[in-house]
């Protein structure tokens, strides 16, 4: 399945690109993260997943403009996935 991924903040730094088409090997956001992680030699999962395997609270994912609360969100061919880092500090 082919999805468009737009990355911002730390996501973009890790992935080395702001926007790209990704052929994912599965049907969920978790599968997409694993596919992207393969291209970063494990760095992506290390940075964005908490120890319990869920998305770290410092990061947000939107699929077709809707916030996703779980990595088990199902993707379909042609989806637009936005990867954001939460801005913090003061």
Q: What would your notes on this structure say?
A:
With 90 residues, this protein is α+β, with helices and mostly antiparallel strands. It has one domain: Beta-grasp domain (Ubiquitin-like (UB roll)). The protein has 3 helices and 5 strands. It has helices at residues 10-15, 29-38, 43-48, and strands at residues 2-7, 19-23, 59-63, 66-68, 80-85. Strands 2-1-5-3-4 form a 5-stranded mixed sheet. Strand 3 and strand 4 (66-68) form a beta hairpin. The longest helix has 10 residues, at 29-38. The model has no long low-confidence stretch (mean pLDDT 94).
Which structural class do you get from the secondary structure elements?
alpha+beta
Q: Number of domains in the coordinates?
A: 1
Overall pLDDT: 94
**Architecture (CATH level 2) name:** Roll
Briefly summarize what is shown:
With 90 residues, the protein is of the alpha+beta class.
Give a topology summary:
Elements lengths: L1 E6 L2 H6 L3 E5 L5 H10 L4 H6 L10 E5 L2 E3 L11 E6 L5
Parallel strand pairs: 1-5
Antiparallel strand pairs: 1-2, 3-4, 3-5
Defining key terms:
alpha+beta, 90 residues, Ubiquitin-like (UB roll)
């Amino acid at each position: 399945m082919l999805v468009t991924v737009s990355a911002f903040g730390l996501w973009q730094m890790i992935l080395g690109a702001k926007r790209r088409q990704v052929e994912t090997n599965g049907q969920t956001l978790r599968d997409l993260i694993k596919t992207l992680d393969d291209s970063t030699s494990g760095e992506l999962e290390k940075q964005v997943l908490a120890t319990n395997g869920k998305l770290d609270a410092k990061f947000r994912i939107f699929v077709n403009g809707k916030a996703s609360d779980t990595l088990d969100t199902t993707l379909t061919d042609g989806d637009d996935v936005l990867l954001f880092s939460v801005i913090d500090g003061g």
